[in-house]
Amino acid sequence: MNPVPFRLGSTLSNIVMHLEKENIGSFEVVNLYPYTSDKKDLLPEDKRKFDEYNYKHIEEAVNSSEIVVLFWGNDNIVSRNPRFVELLMRNTEKLRCFRVTSKNCPDYIYGLSLKHSLQKCTISENGDITIKN
Fold first, then answer.
1. Considering the domain boundaries, does residue 3 fall inside one?
2. Residue 113's pLDDT is what?
3. Mean pLDDT across the chain, nearest whole number?
4. Short name of one Pfam family for this protein (predicted)?
5. SS3 state of residue 45
6. What is the DSSP annotation of 20-31?
7. How many structural domains does the chain have?
């Protein structure tokens, strides 16, 4: 979550509005990396890597959830890791995103609003995300 645990950023607050609209009563946020920063560019390169301990938290969250909202932007480090991709492929019916980037990643929309809608999505063996039609 955010470096300040009790401060929801505006983007996360907007996700909460969408989840309420879908009648989802609770949610858990997990990060691709075990370290956070207010901006991805401020996270040092050596902190942007697949982390086994963090993966266990992601795996628990995905396996215990009814819906998994994908929202990481153009990250290709953890999101393309074969174990991570396999986890999401096993849970494909749970996957949702708002839209997909030109690099086939679930978009991290800074200006997320109620005009955006959660859509079912799928993940391929190489980690590409697509919207289900």
1. no
2. 86
3. 87
4. DUF1643
5. helix
6. HHTT--------
7. 1
